[in-house]
Amino acid sequence: MRVRPSKLLLLIPIAFLLVFFYVPLVSILKTGLWENGFTLRHISAVLTNDYHRRVILFTIGQAVASTLLTLALGLPGAYIFARYDFPGKRVIKAVLTVPFVMPSVMVALGYILLFGKSGIITGLIGRDPGILYSWKGILLAHAFYNFPIVIRMVSSLWQRVNPHYEEAAMALGARGWTLFRKVTLPMISPAIFASAMLTFVFCFLSFSIPLIIGGYRYATIEVDIFTSIMVLLDFKTGSALAIIQILLSMGFMYLYLRALDSYAKREEQRVFRRPVPFTRRDWLSVKGLLVGVYSLIVFVFIVSPLLAVLYDSLRFSGQWSLEWYRRIFSTEYNPMFGATTLDAIRNSLTFGLATVVLSVLVALPIAYALHRWNFRGKRLFDVLVMLPLASSAITLGLGYIRVFHTTPLYFTAWIIIAAHTVIAYPFVLRAVSTSLKKIRPNLFEAALSLGAREWKAFLRVELPLALGGVIVGAIFAFAMSIAELGATYMLAKPEYTTMTVAIYKFLGARQFGSASALAVLLMAVSTLAFMVIERVGEEVW
User: Fold this and answer.
1) Cβ proximity of 334 and 341 under 8 Å
2) 380 and 271 belong to one structural domain
3) Listed residues 266, 285, 317: the one ending a domain
4) Helix or strand (DSSP H, E) at 453
5) Is 508 a domain residue?
6) How far is CA 417 from CA 182, 281, 308, 350, 351, in A?
7) Which residues make Cβ contacts (< 8 Å) with residue 265, sequence separation at least 6?
């Protein structure tokens, strides 16, 4: 039987995922479930331990609370972006999306500068608001991160609510809350549920924010795994915790993919609601007052941490100065061993570009297979190739240590690039898949009817039309790579320090000004990336 070349190409990304994701995953399973035979002793020890059980319950609880807070903050914004047009809308939407790819250490830094004992908000109100080093800080920081997901997904679907349905309901007497509850809400509910599930998964897998803002008192499973492995050197307990986390994540990811299917079907709606201008008269009404209050809340909790970092980077000894920028490039104030700030920038750019290339090469054949072919077990295949999205960087780092520590690959740049690719490629896959779904099938069929082979029809017809999705996915992969901390921290030699790890080390050395200056450079790169994404106009999640 002759196998088509296009199907052979699919073996390359599958082999990559097997080596750099599933083999490390199996290694973790073996460590946690095998000891002279199959055993549940380590899982049982974790589940019967009061501390670990409390950590698991807190991880789920904080993820639920963070998701609800994110929805509360994001839904009004989604409504405003979907219903109204105003000057600078595209730029504001891009800026509000930037937090999603900010390094978590930068978010922690922003919250320290705002809500710490010497923070700006603390100084304004005259007392400690009690946000830092508490569960409240974790929830707010998670909302900061995931707020863009709700804004983009829900506003995108809200714009596609066919206005004829609402007009028909209004003709039958439905108004206000009744109109929203019985007509609008059911139509946008797939976007709300999908964005909520994705937010929940990210909050469930969160590492740096609970570690830095919550401290060990509010540790999550990720922090518990990291502590067990890197501090206590207890690989059995770390693996058992990782297994519990993976099982829970798989269930959550399955729900997310089901929700994403419903979302994608509704997004095929071609009738767009035309946004109405938000006029000066609207600003002077109750509606304008509500928008103003909402904007103030978003400014304080979403935008001001970014501005606080920028402000801090430009203040030295109470004066405006670029001294912190000079110091990050000075070896005299360098807290890193074996690397300079220039090395960190070069490493971040190198890893980021390599991640882009590998992520696209891995994602493109898989996206094509999911889009073009029907085969038994397609749903399971979709879940399996998306599973890296439900696994954490710490779990991945643990698996790499177990599998590659005796190989020449260990402690090299390649192992970091592989880890970044596994983390970033699901976003490329989703961006490309979304673009392919928007292409009319008759174009591909027309190419085949004119004698083109399947792979040629894809390269000549579908790929150019899906190029926007490839570009967005590539930019997202780059942004995810330069923001990655957990796996890089566990796997990188000192000379492979990245900008994000450097910021973490500046924070550890209590050099907040230098950390802010370096974070501003990262912020500039991320903002530029999302300006391009906004220009291209494709969704990633």
Assistant:
1) yes
2) no
3) 317
4) none
5) yes
6) 49, 53, 32, 9, 6
7) 190
51 and 5 in a common domain: no
Same domain? For 312 and 329 the reply is no
Residue 421 placed within a domain: yes
Give the separation between CA 538 and CA 370, rounded to whole angstroms.
19
Are residue 288 and residue 334 in the same domain, yes or no?
no
Report pLDDT digits (tens) over 168-192: 888 877 777 788 888 888 888 888 9
pTM for this predicted structure: 0.82
Looking at the structure, do residues 227 and 343 belong to the same domain, yes or no? no
> Per-residue confidence of the chain (541 residues) as pLDDT tens digits?
555 666 778 889 999 999 999 999 999 888 888 888 888 899 999 999 999 999 999 999 999 999 999 999 999 988 888 888 888 777 777 777 777 767 777 788 888 888 887 788 888 888 888 887 888 889 988 988 888 888 888 888 888 777 778 778 888 777 777 888 888 888 888 889 988 988 998 899 888 888 888 776 788 998 898 888 888 888 889 899 989 988 888 888 788 877 877 777 766 665 667 788 888 888 888 888 888 888 888 888 778 888 888 999 999 888 899 999 988 888 777 766 678 888 888 999 899 889 999 999 999 999 988 888 888 888 788 878 888 887 788 888 888 988 998 899 888 999 999 999 999 998 889 888 878 877 777 777 777 777 777 777 777 888 888 887 788 788 878 888 888 888 898 898 888 999 888 888 888 887 888 888 988 888 877 777 666 656 655 555 5
Domain boundary among 302, 317, 332: 317
Distance CA 225, CA 395 (A): 8
31, part of any domain: no
Do 487 and 415 form a contact (C-beta atoms < 8 A)? no
Supply the range of the domain harboring residue 203: 39-317
Q: What is the pLDDT of residue 532?
A: 65
With a CB cutoff of 8 Å and minimum separation 6, the contacts of 320 are 314
User: What is the token pair recorded at 212?
Assistant: 């830095």
> 137: domain CATH number?
1.10.3720.10
Q: Which residues touch 443 (CB under 8 Å, ≥6 apart)? A: 461, 462, 465
Tally of domains within the chain: 2
228 and 328 together in one domain: no
- CB contact at 8 A, 17 and 385: yes
Spacing of C-alpha 440 from chain mean position: 30
The pLDDT score that the predictor gives to residue 4 is 63
Residue 521 falls inside a structural domain: yes
Three-class DSSP labels, 208-270:
HHHHHHHCHHHCCHHHHHHHHHHHCCCHHHHHHHHHHHHHHHHHHHHHHHHHHHHHHHHHCCC
Helix (H, G, I), strand (E, B) or coil at 319: strand
Distances (CA, A) of 106 to 212, 235, 496, 513: 11, 29, 20, 12
